[in-house]
Amino acid sequence: MPKHVAIVMDGNGRWAKKQGLPRLAGHNAGMMALKEIVKKSSVLGIEHLTVYAFSTENWKRPQDEVGGIFKILIYYVDKELAELHQNNVKVSILGDYGLLPKEAVKKLEEAMERTKDNTGLCFHIALNYGGRDEILKAVRAIAKETAEGNLLPEDITPELFSKKLYTADLPDPDLVIRTSGELRLSNFLLWQTAYSELIFPDVLWPDFTPERLEECIKEYQGRTRRFGGILK
Ligand code: IPE
Ligand code: IPE
Ligand code: MG
């Protein structure tokens, strides 16, 4: 079983268009799909599930879509928090989420606080997350410590660098899934995915089911990971 599964939940807009619905209906349907995937991940015994919910570039979208996405998120957290907690899920946020609307920040902090002692699935939501932004924040923090004389350049190792990222305490993703047929990472976990297995199911996110997740995991289990080495 992969320890850490990371998902780029893409295709909500196209799903809505196909049904002749507004884009926000797609985001709403995407939240329902997510709910099932979180449950299934718990049952499967995955330790970490990370989902890409809003990128640093998604602010470019029309204001009403951006606002709508956060409203749907608040609604989801409100409605699901009790059940997440009951299922022993621990919620965390990756990204500069302080820049989200106040109401969303409040709900997310409430979710993290309420579930912080849970020992089941660690569910990470990437919000206002960008891989480049994350790397630059780490570089700035390291530069500051170095300038202050608290860190030597030779002490900057991959391990130390990893500790400065939003994902400081997480293992790197074993498996990255991106739905919708797009074959790119779109600024997701750039440092952490160096040796991740990538799977691109040809399905729009709202149509991604727990069965599809199991298929992806089967495919992952059939892959050979070498990490640059050779098989003995
Ligand atoms: C992913 O679905 C959700 C977010 C980026 C918030 P999209 O909204 O990108 O859906 P498409 O790619 O337009 O179909
Ligand atoms: C990536 O999807 C971001 C999320 C799923 C949150 P996008 O739809 O923003 O990516 P591009 O623009 O197609 O690369
Ligand atoms: Mg998209």
Keywords:
single chain, 6 strands, 232 residues, binds 3-methylbut-3-enyl trihydrogen diphosphate, Undecaprenyl pyrophosphate synthetase, binds magnesium ion, six-stranded parallel β-sheet, alpha/beta
Summarize the SSE layout with pairings:
Elements: E1 4-8, H1 12-18, H2 23-44, E2 48-55, H3 63-86, E3 90-94, H4 102-115, E4 122-129, H5 131-147, H6 158-163, E5 175-178, E6 197-199, H7 210-221
Bound molecules: 3-methylbut-3-enyl trihydrogen diphosphate (2 copies) and magnesium ion.
Question: Can you walk me through this structure?
Answer:
The structure is a single chain. By secondary structure, this protein is an alpha/beta fold. It has a single domain (4-130, 172-221), classed as Decaprenyl diphosphate synthase-like (Undecaprenyl pyrophosphate synthetase, 3-Layer(aba) Sandwich). Helices cover 44% and strands 14% of the residues. The chain contains 7 helices and 6 strands; from the N terminus they run βααβαβαβααββα. A 6-stranded parallel sheet has the order 3-4-2-1-5-6, with helices on both faces. Strand 3, helix 4 (102-115) and strand 4 (122-129) form a beta-alpha-beta unit. The longest helix has 24 residues, at 63-86. The radius of gyration is 18 Å and the shape is globular. One 3-methylbut-3-enyl trihydrogen diphosphate (IPE) is lined by residues 9-14, 54, 58, 69, 180.
Distinct helical segment count = 7
The ligands found in this model are: 3-methylbut-3-enyl trihydrogen diphosphate, magnesium ion
- What would you report as the Rg, rounded to the nearest angstrom? 18 Å
Mean pLDDT: 98
Distance between the termini: 22 Å
Helical content stands at 40-55%
SS-derived structural category: alpha/beta
In the predicted model, the low-confidence regions spanning at least 5 consecutive residues are: none
Series of secondary-structure elements, N-terminal to C-terminal: EHHEHEHEHHEEH
Q: Which sheet architecture does the biggest sheet show?
A: 6 strands, parallel
The geometry reads as globular
CATH architecture: 3-Layer(aba) Sandwich
Beta fraction of the residues? 5-15%
CATH homologous superfamily label? Decaprenyl diphosphate synthase-like
Q: Give a count of the beta strands, DSSP E runs of length 2 or more.
A: 6
Question: Class in CATH?
Answer: Alpha Beta
CATH topology: Undecaprenyl pyrophosphate synthetase
Strand order, sheet with most strands: 3-4-2-1-5-6
Number of domains: 1
